[in-house]
Write a structure and sequence with these properties.
The chain is α+β, with helices and mostly antiparallel strands. It has seven helices and three strands.
Length: 153
């Protein structure tokens, strides 16, 4: 599994929860940090602009704000806090970062995903916070879909 993979996972807060009463989470795997940041500035911002019904001028202002935040807050967790403030009521990013962090870090989302992973793929004796070995990262990626659909995050 490529240790450079990054993911952007976000929850549709407005439409999904009000119309269909269930989580609608999207997760995009990207080939590295640079591609992930470009994806946020292009595709994710475009999606947010559509949800918020922004015109071209408003979208341009939003792009400038996103770019400024990305420059000021290069740490993914801090950046996500500020981006989520801007997109409140539309979407909420639940994960933006590298695969290795999902497998090893101790953020709330990574811990919850690993607990789900060990429940599904473990032998029942693992501590849910145990990092996932690199050889098993592909299974962690597979577990992500089910976790996003059923998990509590």
């Amino acid at each position: 599994m490529d240790d450079q993979l990054w993911a952007l996972c976000f929850l549709d807060e407005g439409v999904a929860l009000s119309v269909i009463s269930r989580k609608e989470t999207r997760c995009q795997w990207l080939s590295g940090e640079d591609q992930a940041r470009r994806h946020v500035l292009q595709d994710y911002l475009h999606y947010v602009a559509e949800l918020g019904e922004l015109d071209d001028a408003q979208t341009a202002v939003a792009r400038e704000r996103f770019a400024l935040l990305m420059e000021q807050y290069p740490e993914p967790e801090t950046l996500v806090e500020y981006l989520n403030d801007l997109t409140a009521g539309l979407t909420r990013i639940v994960w933006f970062g590298p695969l290795y962090a999902l497998a090893e870090d101790y953020s709330d989302f990574a811990l919850a995903l690993r607990a789900h992973y060990w429940e599904e793929y473990g032998e029942g004796e693992e501590d849910p916070a145990t990092p996932v070995p690199e050889a098993d990262w592909s299974y962690l990626v597979d577990a992500m879909d089910d976790f996003l659909l059923h998990g509590d995050y």
